[in-house]
Write a structure and sequence with these properties.
This protein is α/β, with parallel strands linked by helices and 301 residues long. It has helices spanning 2-11, 35-42, 65-72, 82-97, 113-119, 130-138, 161-167, 182-185, 196-199, 207-215, 273-286, 291-300, and strands at residues 15-19, 22-26, 201-202, 225-228, 245-248, 258-261, 264-267. The protein folds into four domains: 2-53, no CATH class; 65-167, DNA polymerase, domain 1 (Orthogonal Bundle), CATH 1.10.150; 200-253, Uridine Diphospho-n-acetylenolpyruvylglucosamine Reductase, domain 2, CATH 3.30.43.10; 257-300, no CATH class. Strand 1 (15-19) and strand 2 (22-26) form a beta hairpin.
Length: 301
């Protein structure tokens, strides 16, 4: 603990975050601590459950329309994936509200059908099947065709569009759900560096710093070191090998660079494939892309 405190003090950083709008500040934290363990052992939120989606609503305070629509569209069978589906959709709804799109009709959100479908694209369901889950998500979309929504407990076959819309559990776009509190936005300074001696985790913030790390004699054995971009693939890809050192490239701005002009396109090494597609699409709509860019665009999608 003393080492960790020294590292945090030396970096001048502390971890500041909010739980249900309440501010917490930690001068040091063991990176293997799970949020669940922290909540149960060091806050008054002692009854938090693993895989819990109850922050959105619960039996005591009332369910969120996401819960109600998931239930009404029969979109939860064993329930294992349901909390993840709910919070993924909730995140998409919050992000859609941040856009300057026109206000949707009452009961709907600024989300589009395509975004509603994409919001759960990374979540796997083993038993319900995706159609009812996607229907529950799409029921929030401003551009949804009500005829496309499948079997549910809200309306009967043959009901008019107006009756269907009225039967959906109401969605209030200004609902009192705690997201990212304003006081935290003012406190964002940087990521909290971990003590590399202890955790073998390096966060270079400049290309030169990265080059120096790679030149360092301690890094001469390629087997011991891995370049990562957040390392979120761990767990998904069952790699059992543990490396002594990880270099996280996320904070090197040049590696996230995207430059597209009539002479060609240039992408930093850590730009995600979805960002590449998005930026090529934007370029495609905006101007007259070169033949090469057109070819790359066609090859990717
Ligand atoms: C959470 C969940 C809920 C589901 N709900 C439903 C539902 O409500 N309705 C529905 O129709 N489907 C449902 N399914 C799908 C359904 O369970 C599967 O499609 C079905 O069980 C697949 O059967 P299976 O025999 O192919 O494989 P499994 O059910 O996985 O059966 C494989 C069996 O073979 C045994 N086995 C494996 N290897 C060997 C071996 N070498 N020698 C001897 N035995 C071996 C295993 O122990 C296991 O008992 C659900 C699936 C999940 C995960
Ligand atoms: S509801 Fe069972 S895994 Fe999705």
């Amino acid at each position: 603990m003393a080492d960790e405190r020294d590292a945090a003090a030396a970096s001048g950083g502390s971890l500041v975050f909010a739980v249900n709008g309440e501010r917490f500040e930690l001068s040091t934290v063991d990176p293997s601590t799970t949020l669940l363990h922290f909540l149960r052992s060091q806050t008054r939120f002692e009854s938090v459950k693993l895989s819990c989606g109850e922050g959105l609503g619960n039996i005591k305070d009332g369910f969120h329309p996401i819960h109600q629509r998931i239930a009404g569209f029969h979109a939860s069978q064993c329930g294992f994936c349901t909390p993840g589906m709910c919070v993924s959709l909730f995140g998409a709804l919050v992000n859609a509200e941040k856009t300057n799109r026109p206000d949707p009709p009452p009961g709907f959100s600024k989300l589009s059908v395509s975004e509603a479908e994409k919001s759960i694209a990374g979540n796997l369901c083993r038993c319900t099947g995706y159609r009812p889950i996607a229907d529950a998500c799409k029921s929030f979309a401003a551009d949804v065709d009500m005829e496309d929504l499948g079997f549910n407990s809200f309306w009967k076959k043959g009901d008019s569009k107006e009756v269907k819309v009225k039967s959906l559990p109401p969605y209030n776009r200004n609902g009192d759900i705690c997201t990212f509190p304003d006081f935290l936005k003012k406190e964002i300074r940087s990521s909290m560096p971990l003590d590399p001696k202890r955790y073998g985790w390096y966060n270079p913030v400049r290309v030169e710093e990265l080059q120096n790390l790679l030149k360092d004699n301690d890094f001469d054995s390629a087997n011991e070191m891995k370049l990562v971009v957040g390392n979120t693939g761990t767990g998904y890809y069952k790699e059992l090998k543990r490396y002594d050192r990880y270099i996280d490239l996320r904070c090197v701005p040049e590696l996230s660079m995207i430059k597209i002009d009539p002479t060609g396109a240039e992408f930093g090494a850590i730009v995600t494939i979805s960002k590449v597609i998005e930026s090529l699409r934007k370029n495609d709509n905006g101007g007259s892309p070169s033949r090469e860019i057109q070819l790359v665009s066609e090859a990717i999608w």
